[in-house]
Amino acid sequence: MSDAMISLERGDWQTLADEASEIRRVVFIEEQQVPQDEEWDGRDEQCVHFLARLEGRAVGTARLLPDGHVGRVAVLSQARGLGLGLRLMEAAIHAARQAGHAEVLLDAQIHALEFYQRLGFTAFGEEFIDAGIPHRSMRLILN
After folding, report:
1. Domains annotated on the chain, with CATH
2. Is the torsion defined by CA of 22, 106, 122, 110 positive or negative?
3. How far, in Å, CA of 10 to CA of 19, rounded?
4. What is the DSSP-derived secondary structure letter of residue 68?
C-alpha cells in the first residue's frame, strides 16, 4: 500500500466526530460488544483526535486525552494489517510530546499488548476487565 493512498488528520471532536464515531461504533460497539454508555464516556470534547484515511475513506481513529492517555484506537477490519494503527499511535505520541507530556499512558486490550510493546510501551499493574474485555495498563516514557 503506497503512502499516497494513506493520509492522517489531526483535529478536534467537532471536526472529526462523524467519521471517528462511526469507526468506533463499528469496532467497539458492534464487533467487540462494548456497551454504548461505556464507549461514549463524555470525554471526546477535551481530546485531540486522529483519523486515518485509506484512499480518502476514514478507516481508523485514536484520541489523546489532556492527561497524556491515548485511547479509542480503532481500525476497521478491512483496513487492518496496513500499518494504520502504527501511524495513528505515532501521531498521538508526537502530539503528547508536543504538549509536553513526560509519558504516554494507555489501557491495552490483552490481544494488543505486543503491538504497543513494539512501539516501546511497557505493561504495568495487574490485568483488569474494562467493558468486559481483559486489559493491562501500559506506559511509554518520552525523552
Report:
1. 3-141 (3.40.630.30)
2. negative
3. 13
4. S
- pTM, full prediction: 0.93
For residue 69, what is its C-alpha cell? 492517555
DSSP, res 77: G
**CA proximity to 87, closest of 31, 6, 4:** 6
How do the pLDDT tens digits run along the chain, 143 residues long? 556 699 999 999 999 999 999 999 999 999 999 999 999 999 999 999 999 999 999 999 999 999 999 999 999 999 999 999 999 999 999 999 999 999 999 999 999 999 999 999 999 999 999 999 999 999 999 97
**What are the residues facing 128 on neighbouring strands?**
135
